[in-house]
Amino acid sequence: MKNIILISIFFIFSLMAHSQIADVAGLPVSPERSRDYDAIHYKISLSVDFDKKYLEGQNTITLASLTNGLKKIKLDAESILVTDVLSNKGVHLDFYQTEENLFIKTARSYGDNDTITFTVKYHLSEPVPGLRFIEAKGNRPEQVSSDCFPNKARQWIPCYDFPNDKATQEMIITTNSKYKVLSNGRFIRKTENNNGTSTWHWRQENPNSTYLINLSIADYLVVKDSLQNLPVNYWVYHSMADDVERVFGKTPYMIEFFNHLYNYEYPWAKYDQVVSGYIGGGAEATSATLLGEGIVTDEYTEQDYYREYVIAHEIAHQWWGDLITCRSWEHTWLNESFGTYSDHLYTSYDKGKDEGDYDLLTKKNNYLEEAHNRFMRPIVYLNYEQPGDNFNRHTYEKGACTLHLFRYILGDDIFFRVISAFLHKHEFQSVTTSDFIKCVKDVSGKNMDWFFDQYFYRPGHPVFNIRKTWDEENKELTLTIIQEQDKWENVPIYMIPVRLGIFSEGKKEVKEYWIREKTEDIKIHLDTEPDMVRFDDGNYILKEWTYRKSQKELLFQAINDDMTGRMWAVNQLAQYKDEPKTLELWKRIAEGDVFWAVRSAAIEMIGKYHGEDNNDFLKKCAGDNRSKTRAAAIKAMGDLKESSNKDFFKKTFKTENSYAVKAEALIAIGKCGGKSDVSFLKEAGLQKSYSNVVAKASQKAIQIISENE
């Protein structure tokens, strides 16, 4: 969810992670909210006026008292002007408003489990971000688009607006007949009125939290699809018609994948995806996901910018976040870590192991960037000012990587039985980390408290210093593993399983060891010195590590390991950059490795350390079949700042169909060109591209030339 993505909520504070712990710890403690009633149903009837950017109507609320002697009901209501409150018998009830709340005095005192129904009539007092009126612009039609996350439903619906409560709902919306209206749940009917308006009725029949409400109104093109009897629809702009099938066509396939993965059939009446003009990535809403305009790309963009994971991520939220929902915001990982790990599992399933491994590596590195440059904090963390503070790379990427390790420790059978049981047991409920831990114990019989203490309730990650020695006389391999993360406050010395992949005489053997101490020596008797010893074979641990290896071992690893290990070895060979065998291998990998990211890493090393003597080789690599590898080659050539390459860059720009490569070619022209090239760059910058990457590259190139003059 959100443009992390997904929502851009990243702030840069400091370069020292340990200094950030104090900053994060200084935030206020925000425990779960208390309540004295249970919201059961909202029946929301609204008239929406686009011209006036205005709505008015009513919400008929049914709730059950959780206490004896309930005489006053407190609702969340911001930017709403309430005009009347009526009991279910039509009696006017006394009420008053503050800036944040509506207080209603009931006609009598209600006891535990008594049901109360009343109607709040209201209208908006001002434009609000919770329900955005978006102007038409270019191919974007004028629209209304809700933005309820995390606590903005209250800005246009009087309600109880916290995720520890769930209610069913109806949305009955009247607006100009030229618009289509989407909301959660099942479509009931559309009624044409005699005044140029129509009324759309949607009913969400299973309970959900208020931040998952969706109201989207525009002159949409609705493209219908299905998964067997499940309606699947894509609400897009008319200008996007030619791209719908290519962008959204795998949605039923993704839903079916998650049905099997979780062993829980998709839980809602339908699945809609609607394009919104305000959001950057995606925002889950029950049965009706909002997606930013950037999700719809042309055929050339896909080779450069992988957006399919966003669609998969939001589909996964229909279980993780919507079916079960974090009870309060410190448990956000139950929504987002599972959503992020699910999109990784989809990528691995659909794109293959190498792409899946690369995706997981990217997630690890995204977390590490935040840990070093922003803060370190536990995944489950009560200290926050706003709920959005919890939606960061710890919650998304670190949580996903932690689930990957958890899956390895439990084993696939137990792990997937646990998550299926958790979904079934807590369906349509709000949940906590403790609920999940208990489910692990109930299903597996294993007490995994130690794991959650290390990875969820404490900050940080393992930092290993690994040293390897071989005793030829005794035929003994010694691996010394030192945990060095204790330089950070509250970061534990981990108890953790480590897989060692031992390559020897054309064979591979994997041995698992549990480490528990700051320093441990693992001794292994072997017949001969191994060609390679791989630490964390399978890449299960979220870690940093130092592992000095000989050139001979790195040369072997760069050819024989998995994708992650090969790319690591390619980069580690920089220690031996002046050795002829290193360059020879880099060139072999740049042309021949089966995975584009490994080829790109080798190209980067060649350009960085041997570029001047290998310009023609890099030019050859610029013809790779993958655009990202071609872009790496163009960048490496651009960094040489050789004016003789300028014509090649211009030709590349004109003939390429990749926006990423075009952009890199323009920046390269800036590095090796001069004032005479500015006109070419300006004209090139007029070319339309995804996220304006070409125009931005043009501007950057012109700036480089200006700075170099």
From TrEMBL:
PANTHER family: PROTEASE M1 ZINC METALLOPROTEASE, PUROMYCIN-SENSITIVE AMINOPEPTIDASE-RELATED. It comes from the Bacteria. Keywords: Aminopeptidase, Hydrolase, Metal-binding, Metalloprotease, Protease, Signal, Zinc. It holds the Pfam family Peptidase_M1. GO terms for biological process: peptide catabolic process; proteolysis. It comes from Maribellus comscasis. Residues 1-19 form the signal peptide. Its cofactor is Zn(2+). Gene3D superfamilies: Leucine-rich Repeat Variant, Neutral Protease Domain 2, tricorn interacting facor f3 domain. GO terms for molecular function: alanyl aminopeptidase activity; metalloaminopeptidase activity; peptide binding; zinc ion binding. InterPro entries: Aminopeptidase_N-like_N, Aminopeptidase_N-like_N_sf, ARM-like, ARM-type_fold, Peptidase_M1, Peptidase_M1_aminopeptidases, Peptidase_M1_dom, Peptidase_M4/M1_CTD_sf. Its EC number is 3.4.11.2. Belongs to the peptidase M1 family. The keyword Mitochondrion does not apply. GO terms for cellular component: cytoplasm; extracellular space; membrane. This is Aminopeptidase N.
